[in-house]
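Quick check before the chapter quiz. The format below is the same one you will see on the exam, so make sure you can read both the input and the output lines.
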Amino acid sequence: MAVVQVETLIECGVHFGHRVSRWHPKMGRYIFGKRNQIHIVDIRQTILGLVRASNFLRQLAQSGKQLVFVGTKRQAKSLIQEEAERCGMHFVAERWLGGTLTNYHTIRSRLKRLEELEGYEQTGAIEQYSKKRISALRRERKKIHRNLSGIRNLKSLQGCLVIVDVKREHIAVKEAKKLGIPIVAVVDTDCDPSDVDVVIPGNDDAYRSIQQILRVLSDAVIAGRDKYIEIQAEEEKKRLEAEEAARRAAEEQEQKAREEQTQREAEEKAQVSEEVLPEEL
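Here is the expected output.
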């Protein structure tokens, strides 16, 4: 079953690559041909990449893993944030700070600073400073929020990165490879696909192309998360049933122990009565 129709991808311009002079040789197997000095991506390879990526992301989401959508180019910013929020995952849409993955404790310290600055605003404590200091604190808060708000709830990345334009996001790619984090990426004809685990060959410059691909991927994540929630609910139900069964078994055992104790006490009283009666006679 196809993830998306071929006609839809063609209408969105997913098959358009870069100029022939800018191509990367390793993308040769994903290229169908060229027209007017523009490479045409093999749409069959795009669909195959989408199917593989969708299955992979669905399995990750189903196992409860976290994903980060990365895309800082102008065409992708709003789409990255929109689709990441729709499927309940994290995103980086403004700027990939060096060390976001490899130096995460420093990133966490900046996020703590963000919480601290937001606390000043909420409690009104910021009013005790001078106007110049207040302006500086608010600029700092906006800057941290702009760069890191998409990953502020990310505790640890055990899933993967979903990247639009690996050439632009080369720092994120290097950090992910260093930590062994898998990468799913939209790869255009001018990019090197060798560092990408699941390649989706296609146009990473057109707005509609990026939108269509991200929508398919986020739908797969949503399906996986729904399955994960269902599995968690079933496990919770089984756990409660096991606890209830254990509680009932403990009550039955306790009731049985009380009955045995009562019976032993009755037998002891009867035996004492029998021993006392002959002595009186």
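If your answer matched, good. The CA atoms of residues 258 and 264 lie 10 Å apart.
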